[in-house]
Amino acid sequence: MSADYPAPDMSDVKLVDVLSALADPTRLEIVRVLADGLAHPKATTEWDFGMQKSALAYHFKTLREAGITFTIVNGRTHDIQLRKDELDARFPGLLDALINAR
Amino acid sequence: MSADYPAPDMSDVKLVDVLSALADPTRLEIVRVLADGLAHPKATTEWDFGMQKSALAYHFKTLREAGITFTIVNGRTHDIQLRKDELDARFPGLLDALINAR
DNA sequence: AGCATAGTTCAACGATCATTGAACGATTGA
DNA sequence: TCAATCGTTCAATGATCGTTGAACTATGCT
Predict the structure, then answer these.
(1) What is the pLDDT of residues A23-58, one digit of tens each?
(2) Total CB pairs under 8 A between chain A and B
(3) I want to staple B68 with a disulfide (CB 3.0 to 4.6 A). Which of B11, B39, B54, B63 is the partner?
(4) Count of alpha carbons within 13 angstroms of residue B63, beta-carbon side
(5) B101 vs A102, which has greater pLDDT?
(6) What is the Cα–Cα distance from A15 to A5, expressed in whole angstroms?
(7) What are the residues facing B80 on neighbouring strands?
(8) Using the CB atom, is residue B18 less than 7 Å from strand D?
(9) Residue in chain A nearest B28 by alpha carbon
(10) What is the pLDDT confidence band of residue A59, given thresholds at 50, 70 and 90?
(11) Sequence-distant (≥ 6) Cβ neighbours of residue B72 within 8 angstroms
């Protein structure tokens, strides 16, 4: 039985929850990497933040539950992808402002 | 002796600290009110969030220390003002995105 | 001088957060 | 079938957060 990784409807997403999710250096960096709009593996080797895989999983979950990303299950491995177009429609200019910030 | 209310140089302000400061409903609402760029009194009567004045002072301090606002002392009363132009220069598009969000 | 007012600071509290390490579940491949 | 792999979940821990109520500081007013 395959688990599912529910993400909220974008219309239910509150700005303050998006900001809370992004108000963390690790998650902000993840989003910046995801800014290319492509699906990226969750593999620990791809995200070397010097933390345990459980901590990384926690951050992925936080982003997903905030409506910022969704999860793609590919057998044993997972990808994570930014909900770029949806976020741009819901909060115009926000992603760009975050990603372009020096 | 008059207290001073130091605000950081905008060049030292980190995006993640701005996001942390704004990741709170009360502070986000304060910033939205301040979005007109004018100085607003800190008076408790102007900000009826149903909390004690000490809690409000905590939020004002959080915003100031994050580099989002500064304090203007007028004798016994204080004003708070958004660092609009500085923020726009430091994080282009961020304030607009936050303020225009539905 | 004396008192009222505006706002800050502080200690205390309960709640939430980020992290670890271990256990668990699902999938792949030998 | 069995073991290895990928990622999640869980309990525990220490740190930080938002709030309260009380004390305190600074200023203005009479």
Answers:
(1) 999 999 999 999 999 999 999 999 999 999 999 999
(2) 55
(3) B63
(4) 27
(5) B101
(6) 21
(7) B40, B71
(8) no
(9) A16
(10) very high
(11) B39, B78, B79, B80, B81
